[in-house]
């Protein structure tokens, strides 16, 4: 279950990749713009601001997130992104930090690109930090005897997404022009163990779903200590949090 409030705690930092992704799209007057996996709707306004005359389509599989999006005035609907099919007038698709939750997303990308009209743009970004301490430490703790029984198979590993070269090689063909790149953002976080709070809104969500309240509190306590060592706080109160992201902008010929 998604918690919109928890997810939006670091919205300024989480939203930066979407700005960079949208800036790459050269569509002038798209007919339909899609926020695929819109979450709480906090990024949908970027799309309406960039293309105010386009028909907006926003969807997400989380009822909690869609409710939050609707409270912001976003006409979102509940739908699994894997079931989404582009309308004939779909000219721009933004899929921000969604596909890492879908193991077979490369196959989906092939299908979506084949169904988009000529001139359409499909853009996405995924976290590329699954081998970073923020995620590796969670997997290490979950694999220990105390937690193995309840958390075996729950967490994602560092092969759930690909690198920019792999995506470019996989998706490019005579009918699709692909631009792929990666960026490592160095976020300046504040607060007590902010990396723990960050991953609580995303990477730890499956762990929270698998544990009861007492177990969850115990797991967080153990993880908090390890993350505070991996990501020490500076004397000025800042904790540096490097975060790699992988981007793809595909343009259909």
Name the descriptors.
253 residues, alpha/beta, Rossmann fold, 7-stranded mixed β-sheet, 7 strands, 23% strand, disordered N terminus, EC 2.1.1.144, Trans_acon_MeTrfase_C, trans-aconitate 2-methyltransferase activity
How does the SSE layout of this entry go?
Layout: H1 4-7, H2 11-23, E1 32-36, H3 44-50, E2 55-60, H4 63-71, E3 76-78, E4 90-96, H5 105-115, E5 121-127, H6 133-142, H7 145-151, H8 164-171, E6 176-190, H9 194-200, H10 205-210, H11 213-230, E7 238-252
Parallel strand pairs: 1-2, 1-4, 2-3, 4-5
Antiparallel strand pairs: 5-7, 6-7
CATH homologous superfamily (4th level) name: Vaccinia Virus protein VP39
Largest sheet: 7 strands, mixed
Q: For this structure, what is the CATH class?
A: Alpha Beta
Distance separating the two termini: 39 Å
Question: Tally of extended strands?
Answer: 7
Mind explaining what this structure looks like?
- The chain is α/β, with parallel strands linked by helices.
- It has one domain: 3-Layer(aba) Sandwich (Rossmann fold).
- It has helices at about 5, 10-25, 45-50, 65-70, 105-115, 135-140, 145-150, 165-170, 195-200, 205-210, 215-230, and strands at about 30-35, 55-60, 75-80, 90-95, 120-125, 175-190, 240-250.
- It has a seven-stranded mixed beta sheet.
- Strand 4, helix 5 and strand 5 (about 120-125) form a beta-alpha-beta unit.
- It is globular, with a radius of gyration of 19 Å.
- Residues about 1-10 have low confidence and may be disordered.
Short structural description:
The chain is of the alpha/beta class.
């Amino acid at each position: 279950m998604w918690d919109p409030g928890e997810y939006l705690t670091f919205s300024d930092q989480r939203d930066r990749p979407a700005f960079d992704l949208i800036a790459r799209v050269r569509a002038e007057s798209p007919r339909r713009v899609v926020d695929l996996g819109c979450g709480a709707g906090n990024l949908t306004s970027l799309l309406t601001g960039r293309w105010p005359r386009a028909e907006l389509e926003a969807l997400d599989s989380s009822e909690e997130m869609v409710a939050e999006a609707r409270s912001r005035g976003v006409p979102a609907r509940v739908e699994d992104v894997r079931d989404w099919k582009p309308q004939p007038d779909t000219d721009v698709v933004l899929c921000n930090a969604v596909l890492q939750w879908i193991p077979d997303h490369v196959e989906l990308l092939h299908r979506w690109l084949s169904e988009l009209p000529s001139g359409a743009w499909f853009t996405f970004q995924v976290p590329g930090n699954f081998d970073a301490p923020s995620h590796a430490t969670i997997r290490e703790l979950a694999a220990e005897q105390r937690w193995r029984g309840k958390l075996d198979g729950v967490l994602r590993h560092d092969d759930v997404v690909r690198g920019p070269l792999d995506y470019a090689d996989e998706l490019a063909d005579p009918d699709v022009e692909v631009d792929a790149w990666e960026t490592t953002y160095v976020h300046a976080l504040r607060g007590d163990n902010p990396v723990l709070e960050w991953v609580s809104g995303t990477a730890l969500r499956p762990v929270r779903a698998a544990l009861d309240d007492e177990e969850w509190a115990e797991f967080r306590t153990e993880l908090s200590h390890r993350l505070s060592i991996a990501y020490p706080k500076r004397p000025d109160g800042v904790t540096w949090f490097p975060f790699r992201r992988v981007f793809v902008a595909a343009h259909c010929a």
